[in-house]
Design goal:
By secondary structure, this protein is mainly alpha-helical. The chain contains three helices and no strands. It is rod-shaped.
């Protein structure tokens, strides 16, 4: 038991560059954040464009259906 009491306690000698990402890791994370942000913005723009395109197509289809219905009524009234 006395042998354990006389052993010196080791001091931690860990190099911070070996256990932390350092400046290079920080730069990689910043680049990833910027790229992901740009991808999300592009995706939102594309989804919005597709939604507006669909709404415009629905409006055009409704106008065409109304025009056909008016022509059909006009033909029925004339006929």
């Amino acid at each position: 038991m006395q042998a354990l009491g006389t052993m010196p306690t080791p001091t931690p000698t860990v190099d911070p560059m070996l256990v932390s990402p350092g400046p290079m890791g920080f730069a990689v994370i910043v680049i990833l954040v910027v790229l992901v942000t740009l991808l999300v913005l592009d995706m939102l723009r594309r989804v919005r464009r597709a939604r507006y395109r669909e709404e415009a197509n629905e409006a055009l289809d409704a106008e065409e259906a109304a025009a056909r219905e008016r022509e059909a009524r006009r033909d029925a009234d004339d006929g």
